[in-house]
Amino acid sequence: MQYFNYFPTVQYRIPNSKKSISATNITKRFSVANFLRNSAVVFDEYYVEDGDRPDSVAYDYYGDQNMDWLILLTNEIHDSYFQWSLSYEQFNSYLRDRYGSVEYAMKTNHHYEQIIQQRREVLDYEQQRILPEKTLIVDYDTYISLATFERKSITIYDYEQDLNETRRHIYLLDLNYLLIIKQQHPYIFDEVTIR
């Protein structure tokens, strides 16, 4: 990843020593949205498949694997391991490491929900639309007081799988803006503010 190549450096004094070292100032960063705020930017939606990595997506979409940092930045991903979607094998390994076993995660409740609105299809101006299910997290006492059709329990497995699936939906900066980013990247940090 070449993203950090253009970050400014700072002198860091080693505690209890007269020596100092030059370190990359990782507190400096910019937001793609702020950088292109005066442009009519278009983002393309992308669904991350098993085996996709930021560098492979960058190569497939931009033709340059070194633009992986742009994909991470566009989606505000700061940790490409925990914020990027996991493959099936990685997901199961994560469950075993965190919860002991996949079976435990499948059998153990994470939380309870009250169904406020059932998922349904409606006809709106001769267009068929799907209204999604809406739920509210409730405690166990509230959960057991509800009718069967008004409640559901969410297992650890379902909860973690839903989070992982959510991470599969990312946005890619339109190809038309790639040249602008490539030209301006070395100079972007001259204008940034620390967040």
3D structure, described in words:
With 195 residues, this protein is an alpha+beta fold. It folds into two domains: 3-85 and 168-188, no CATH class; 88-166, no CATH class. Helix content is 34%, strand content 25%. It has eight helices and nine strands. A three-stranded antiparallel β-sheet has the order 7-4-8. The chain has a two-stranded antiparallel sheet with strand order 1-2. Helix 2 (54-62) crosses helix 3 (68-74). The chain is extended, with a radius of gyration of 23 Å.
* SSE ordering: EEHEHHHHEEEEHEHEH
Tally of domains: 2
On the 0 to 100 scale, the average pLDDT is 83
Sheet having the most strands: 3 strands, antiparallel
Strand content: 25-35%
Oligomeric description of these chains: single chain
Separation of the first and last Cα atoms: 22 Å
Overall spatial form: extended
Secondary structure elements and pairings:
Blueprint lengths: L8 E5 L6 E5 L7 H4 L7 E5 L6 H9 L5 H7 L13 H12 L2 H6 L1 E9 L2 E5 L2 E5 L2 E5 L1 H6 L5 E5 H12 L1 E5 L4 H11 L7
Antiparallel strand pairs: 1-2, 3-9, 4-7, 4-8, 5-6
Helix pairs in contact: 2-3
